[in-house]
Write a structure and sequence with these properties.
alpha/beta, TIM Barrel
Length: 311
């Protein structure tokens, strides 16, 4: 079954996110979009929450990256829009880089030791912490579809209220998880990613962070209709998710390290499908310094050249 994937007309007054935001949110988000990183309305985030989410194993490919100083220096000197990390790392390392690169404070986290059947990530920091640290945005991981999602929605609702009170942009890491998602095509299916994008927007996200949807004809047969019959390209799948997020901006992750050509092609597809940027961690800091700086420059060039949406 082939479905048409109509193209959103981006860049109009009607589709502008910034025009709808409070002055506090608009000021902070504009800094990320225009004053730091590639600029010109794009986003390039460097996440360094893998130590708690995955454990130290992610640092083995580049031992220098085990020292958080490596990522903070890289974010500042290579020119990222923001560095995303938890409270403990922010309080210990960010003071040396305040004013050089914006902070995106992650408010909740968990380890990957327990299974993901009933995923839930409790808060260990607050929006007030973010204000005190000088952050320009906060991040929240939402596990869409988890049996614990009722608790997740309540916790996120309180975070969203604080974001509105303090004028703090809210970035939602929208991750499909749980035993029920796995029965419906899996956490990386278009059905799951598309659904997560919409839920995050409707829960109050200003920016939605998504994983790349994966096209798997066998697993997709288990997805609800019409996803079980859809035939889409990778770029069309991304566009579906971007459209489902409405006026919220969308950034996609790179996941595990891939080669340069694939990374840059993925960046191009994301931007041409209406995305606003990328959040690349392991694909950058698992490289030695000179190689990391070089690929960041190429990513930034691709973001600008392929941009199709004005925020």
């Amino acid at each position: 079954m082939e479905l048409s994937t109509g193209k959103i007309e981006f860049g109009t007054e009607q589709s502008s996110l910034l025009a709808t935001l409070s002055p506090g949110k608009r000021t902070r988000l504009r800094r990320l979009l225009y004053d730091y990183g590639p600029g010109e309305g794009t986003l390039l985030f460097l996440p360094i929450d893998q130590g708690i989410e995955h454990g130290p194993r992610d640092f083995f490919p580049n031992p220098a990256s085990k020292d958080p100083e490596y990522q903070f220096r890289l974010a500042a000197e290579a020119g990222y829009s923001a560095i995303a990390c938890g409270y403990g790392m922010a309080i210990k390392y960010y003071p040396s880089y305040a004013g050089q690169v914006p902070l995106l404070l992650k408010l909740n986290s968990k380890t990957d030791v327990p299974p993901s059947e009933e995923a839930f990530s409790p808060c260990n920091a607050s929006v007030e912490d973010a204000v005190r640290l000088g952050a320009d945005a906060v991040g929240y991981t939402l596990y869409v579809g988890s049996p614990k999602q009722s608790d997740d929605f309540i916790q996120l609702g309180k975070v969203r209220q604080d974001c509105d009170q303090y004028g703090m942009p809210l970035v939602i890491w929208a991750y499909p998880r749980g035993r029920d998602i796995e029965r419906k095509g899996g956490q990386n299916s278009l059905y799951a990613i598309d659904y997560a994008a919409r839920v995050a927007m409707e829960m109050g996200a200003d920016v939605v962070k998504l994983n790349m949807p994966k096209i798997d004809s066998e697993k997709d047969k288990d997805a609800p209709a019409p996803y079980n019959e859809m035939e889409v390209t990778q770029e069309e799948a991304i566009r579906h998710a971007v459209e489902s997020a409405g006026r919220a901006l969308v950034v996609l992750s790179g996941g595990s390290r891939i080669d340069d050509d694939k990374l840059l092609e993925q960046t191009r597809m994301i931007m041409e499908a209406g995305g606003s940027g990328v959040i690349f961690g392991r694909n950058v800091w698992q490289r030695e310094w000179n190689e990391a700086v070089r690929i960041v420059e190429q990513i930034k060039e691709t973001l600008i050249k392929s941009r199709t949406r004005i925020p």
